[in-house]
Amino acid sequence: MADTSYHVDKRPPVIGPGHTFKTITDKIGSIVLTPHTPMAWFVVTFIGFNLLLVLTVSLVYLLLKGVGIWGTNIPVGWAFPIINFVWWIGIGHAGTLISAILLLFKQDWRTSINRFAEAMTLFAVACAAIFPIIHTGRPWLAAYWLFPYPNTMSLWPNFKSPLIWDVFAVSTYAIVSLLFWYTGLIPDLATFRDKAKHNISKRIYGVLALGWRGSARHWERYEKATLLLAGLSTPLVLSVHTVVSFDFAVAVLPGWHATIFPPYFVAGAVYAGFAMVLTLAIPLRKLYGVEDFITMRHIDNMAKVMLVTGLIVVYGYACEMFYGWYSANQYERFMLINRTTGPYGWSYWMLLLCNFIVPQLMWSRRMRHNLLAVFIVAMFVNVGMWLERFVIVVTSLHRDFLPSSWDMYYPTVWDFSTFFGTIGLFLTLFFLFVRVLPMIAIFEMRMLLPTAATAHGEAGEVGIVEDENGEVR
Amino acid sequence: MAHQTPAASPFYGLMAEFPSADALLTAARRVRDAGYTKFDTFSPFPIHGMGEAIGFKEKSVAPIVLVGGIVGLLAGYGLEYWTSVIAYPLNIGGRPYHSWPMFVPPAFETTILFASISALVGMLALNGLPQPYHPVFNAPKFSMASQDSFFLVIEADDPKFDAGETRRMLDSLQPREVVDVAH
Amino acid sequence: MDFSEIRTRLEGLDGRTYWRSLDELSGTPEFQEFLHREFPSQAAEFTDPKGRRDFLRLMGASIALAGATACTRQPAEKIVPYVRQPEELVPGRPLFYATAMPLGGYGMPLLAESHMGRPTKTEGNPEHPASLGATDIYGQAAILDLYDPDRSRTVLDRGDVSTWSTFVTAFRNQLNAQAATQGAGLRILTEQVTSPTLADQIQTLLQAYPGAKWHQWDPVFGVMQTSGSAVPAEQATYRLDQADIVVSLDADFLGFGPAAVRAQKDFAKRRRVDHPGADMNRLYVVEPTLTVTGGKADHRLPLKARDVHAFAAALAGAVGAGSSAGAPGAELPADAAKWISAIATDLQAHRGKSVIIAGDKQPPAVHAIARAMNEALGNAGTTVTYGAPVARTNADGVASLRELVGDMAAGRVEVLLILGGNPVFTAPIDLGFAHQLQKVALRAHLSQTVDETSDLCHWHINEAHFLEAWGDIRSFDGTVTLQQPLIAPLYGGKSALEVIAALNGQGDKSGLDLVRDYWMRGVAGQTADSWNVTVGETFDKTWRQALHDGFIAGTSAFDAAASAPVAPAGAAPTAAPAVAGPVGTSGTTQAPSMTGLEIIFRPDPTILDGRFANNGWLQELPKPLTKITWDAVAYMSAHTAERLGLQSRDLVTLSYRGRQQQMPVWVQPGHVDESVTVHFGYGRPKAGRVGSNVGFNAFTLRHADAPWFDGGLEISKTGTYDISTTQVHHSMEGRHLVRAVTREQYAAHPESVHAMAHTPAPDMTLYPKFEYNGYKWGMAIDTATCTGCSVCIIACQSENNIAIVGKEYVGRGREMHWLRVDTYYAGNIDTPETYHQPVPCMQCENAPCEQVCPVAATTHSAEGLNDMVYNRCVGTRYCSNNCPYKVRRFNFLLYSDYSTPSFDMMRNPDVTVRSRGVMEKCTYCVQRINHVRGDAKTEGRSIRDGEIQTACEQACPSDAIVFGDLNDPNSRVSKLKAQERNYGILEDLNTRPRTTYLAAVRNPNPALEPAATQTSQPARH
Lengths: 473, 183, 1021
What we know:
The complex is a heterotrimer. By secondary structure, chain A is mainly alpha-helical. In chain A, 70% of the residues lie in helices and 0% in strands. Chain A is built from 18 helices and no strands.
């Protein structure tokens, strides 16, 4: 049989043994379609919601007073907001990568994590999208002036500016991710429609399911569309962080103006994304007892991806160093010295610790199979990737060309409250999602079952009538 | 013989429920070989080979997406060119009005955007979705079609359809059961 | 930022005007705290209705002025309707009137710009020998004082609102009472006075009351470190454009004083090396603390203030002008001998073409030595002329004040009239002026704000600003300068002249009549001072000419036919009998100690003795060299700081003669060891919303017998203190931003300037070139002549409505100045070379800022200006990040003050007031360009070179900034850019800056500086 490979190799399976279409459906369905909500859910959502309130307060005060409430100044015109923006956008990338790129590579193990990874993408992008708008001096104008729309002054945005590229890239990314996510949800929404006991939820899921009935013709077109969406998302996800990196690479600033940025940023994004997926997956599978679906196999694979992308990022650091030295440009060289030994030197060394040293643990199989270890490493990476953006943004800006304009940057309490506030927004959205939507793609899980798989294997053959045992062993 | 005239009756077709994907696939091939054209299968997940088993040939999604992409590309680059070169040319940092390398990223994004939207919209449109009501939903056990059960429906207005004949043929495929589906 | 409690406070008050209540409030600690926290954001508490009523009153005044047709002041009642538009007054077109700003009694000649009757900007008077078109920072900032919302608005009688007439009656009654005793109990205390009319009026009063005495006190001007010896009888006027060698003995002649502007003009003439091999002057400076002048020195010897005397004496000996006898014993540094011989040889080699300048902070003996040297070297008459002092008051204010205090203590003073000044705050601490003052039965004080002195006086008379009152005044060179009002007194204030006149029973006469009458008599030779003024056919014609020019021709010491007024026999005008008698009539004079840690007193470089403490522009103006804002600090050398275990931003207690004062430390490169310089003027308790309780008050240490320097200071660290500077790093880090060459180098290798950094060829670009036909604006800035005096910054601030942000936000790097002056040190930290670089927007042709703006809010104009469209800006700050020169400024908060009515009148109507969240930057004063372009178009001609002057260019006393059309090969700027010295900064980024610089040229003496070390290497510290 085509999938015996699962059983011959040493690796743990992508789905626990003894599952049938029914058990899968019931297991995942029961997480949502139940009146009982686990206490832990309330706790986390409560924390998240309170942080969300902090965000609200911060934003209101910001709109009343102006960006001066932050520590930004001249020369450090960008700081926390842009750092957070890049950080969140980066996190988003793992979701798309899992759902699109791994799909194209026919990586079946992606199935059980892609749904909530995609959700993570959406919510991360939502958090990220806040910052480019609120970091401007006049957000009430920036909110729409950056989009090309006909106006009485017949003014248009400046398409030569990387920030406009950002607007297009990020908004496209958000929309496409949403489409892709929803497309994947339709059959599962139909399942919920049919399983839901409560009348109202039945209706809601029914409306969202668009009357999906699993017709063969529909499945044919559906799979084609999904495949194409995956094919479109792949270059998109690569382009998004490339464009984000242009915000820096296009500038003249030493420490920004580097050709390595696009690949190095994309790798960093995937790195951060997988760290975040692990940060979410490890507690979730425990909390909802879905260890059968998110198995050690997944943890192991993601840890490996994290390790590899991490090494690519470190290669990026090495390149920056090399260019700085090899360019023989006094500004570049000074930037390196300042980055490593200047007043913000600590952040650079912390960054190396978090993004380079600690993740090396993932070489060891024992570590990869120790959930706590993986979780801690993932946390380090989350912090490390934030620090990376801090190093790039702040240490490059605070000492640039003219020593006379050098200055220091100190964040204020509002910088922090805004940042942690968005974490609250993220948690709130994510746990609401977990509560009302299937966090694992049910119909795709079904396809992982051998019985479903045989259909692939022996498709085209005739005369298997005698195959009676419809129920799975 | 009352239901010799299907068109007149409030009778949509016959539905057979099968235990497994394989059974459904086999049954579908049989029905097709039997010369039926107006029939469809329903499963909780896509069954590879089912398309050809029921004689489904249409390939319209890809072209729609392609067109969407091309439109997006032209729209994006066109907007950039028109605004920066024709509508309101500005000397920005001494760069030429038509700085094509700088126009690539937005044009690329619009391409993806339009293509993606046409992928989803196109798929739904071809599938005739959203479609809140469909006769098959009348079948009592059909709700299992989205969970762990497999169905085959032969519509009453299939030229070859004959209530007795067709039911016998379906029974020969060893379904769990065969039921009438009302309009 | 919660004003609620202050608002309730305000609403709780009734009856009295708002201003009284502010005064009352400011007494309370909470309100002091409030002011202290809030000084930057100029008053949101103005939203209360009283404020608005004031606003209406102000508008009334200004509308009334809209009728003003000529130079004469119209009565406020008469309003000319616009249907019959007065001639000369075209809406949107400013008018310019010549006037003068009094400072330390001397006049800074100005041209005031008036928009619809509102003065909005002051410029130098190009015709006037003391200005030649430039001003000092005070001349530029004057306009803010005029509209200062904290100005007192009424006469006060023991704190209650009163009227001018009430005061006059009351005071004249007192005088009549004095008549019996011939006015023996009457005292008048003024600042230094040069105004002929005022002096004449005072003399008239003194003749009416022979027993009365006229005292003079100004903590900055007319204060001598006498130490017993008599002050020089004649004052020196220098002709620096004639001097090849200039030796400064602790004289900051370029950076401070009424002569500084003219000095810079003349000095710069001899620093401009327009072609390789051109000759230039050489400047030796011997001074304790690094000054603007020291910064320009080719050779600077740090020397304790108390050792300058000995050095001068030794130098005198070396040039054969008397021996070093009589000089107080001082240990000169080891290499002093080398210096003396080198300077002496240089001086000898340039007899008649050199000049020795003694600093006004040095005792008379040093001045005598300097004069002796100048005479011995034949400089007297060529590079320096000695003439009768311009001041009509005794040059030794300390003695004068000491005598007054003596009389007050002895109860001999019954009526004291204080005209201007703030002696309660500024008097030497040991005289106990404030205490003795209370013994005077009747005290009246004339001042623009209710200050510390007003508080202790029975009467406060609200003084008219110089732009509101008539007067005459003489500038340092003796030029008689006329002071015309541009606006009716906003709050009905009076000038000192009007006060004295009223006491002389001429209260009915307007200021104009008083001045005019005096000069009618003056030209007729009927005044005490004899003036030989050439009169035209009629006096009226001469008078009108003088008003137009702003001064009476032929009265300057610079004129060939120099006719400083000939003092009548007995030198009565200097009021020797009236003004304080011999030194030390009261109190004991002890000679300044020559041992121990030295303490040096200097007026603050920006707010002076505190009289400008409420002027936000001057408060926030980075002090030349240190770039400190909003604070007074104690400067010391690195060695001294090391020895005392101190560093910058340490808070220390200065103990001196048993008095203590806290102050933060600042380690200043180039400061002499074992000496500490403190600036007085900060720490005023009652300056106003901006200046109250800002910084530390050094007056608490200043003694009458050692006003400028003394020994015996002790320092102990008590903590640390935040200081806001606009430049934290003063080393060039090996980047050739200011390029410096020596004269020899430049002559031998003119290309060496360009060799310092790579400049890409014009064709080295992928882009097609944008053609700039028509005008192509550009600017050249000469770092060889720039002294870092920072006048350009204030000029820019005034012209472009630039907001201030306050100490806290300066500390956070949020200052708004469009133009900054970068100061870099090179060489070692003890005797560094100092270089200044004014940095406006470079107006790059390939502007990095424009490309990254998402909404195209900054783009290029057809004339190559890097335009900033405020309305379009959404404030991403990307442009600033991508600006290699960091010249862009961002309104992080609402820094512009929209709520203070009087500022609405002050602002330049041609420049947008920027709101919160908007980026702004230098525009090359595009509003001026457009004005002139309009004129040129209507006249159907092209713009002439020099017709457009940017505000910074116009104000620059060194003419270091030149703006013009690069497409005109004959424009000054094109010629400058053609020089070998011309270079752009960061040109290797291919930004194509339109603003370029001319390399600094030093002229070291080979005897003191071996050729090997002549190229300046940037210091790393």
